[in-house]
Write a structure and sequence with these properties.
Blueprint: E1 6-19, E2 22-35, E3 39-43, H1 50-57, E4 65-70, E5 73-74, H2 80-90, E6 91-95, H3 106-116, H4 121-134, H5 150-162, E7 168-172, H6 180-195, E8 199-203, H7 207-210, E9 215-220, E10 223-229, H8 231-235
Parallel strand pairs: 3-8, 3-9, 6-7, 7-8
Antiparallel strand pairs: 1-2, 1-4, 4-5, 9-10
Helix pairs in contact: 3-4, 3-5, 5-6
Length: 236
Amino acid sequence: MNATQPLIQLRNLEKSYEAGAGRFFVLRRITLDIASGEFVTIMGPSGAGKSTLLSIVGMLDGAWQGEFFFLEQPVHKLNVKQRNELHKQNIGFVFQSYHLIDNLTVFENLELPLSYKNVPSKERASLVCDTLDRFQIVGKKDLFPSQLSGGQQQLVAVARAVIMNPKLILADEPTGNLHSAQGEEIMQLFKRLNDAGTTIVQVTHSERNAAYGSRIIQLKDGWLVGETKTDSGAAA
């Protein structure tokens, strides 16, 4: 895979809160490049700043200092509306807790991100049907999330994240609530998406999940303290 073009460039990124007379830093001087087509894992103990970093990269959090370029666009200079637009056009999210909408069917959950982007209804239906077929969940389209297993719900969540063909998928502990076989299925799916060209950044505590990617970024107490290639990264 040709992972050459920088998709993400972070320069001295910091996130902090006022705490009494001083400041509490969640992230400290993070400088990191992620190329298009990479599969990167962020690891570290609880409280290291992993999910915060993912949230900033996903443009869900705008309260930070430093520089952040996405596709060479200076995110640190964009207003909220511009940032949201860049996020909607390019980024899909997968969370540990699925984040499906309980009172919508599988079909409607998949259709939702398309409606946000004003895709015409006929085209929406076609895209949803294609995605149901691709993820082999056509038979589940009229079911509600409560009628699905955890693995099926996460499969729908991944399908919803990729329906707009995003350049980047951000996954926060995507197999944390799943049995090992279900988790393996989701990770195999991420691997196939990455092989097809989608950039993936995942947060995980699982060494097994990390091995699916090419590079592991280690965070501790908000600092980037290490970086290693996995076997698959070394072979790339």
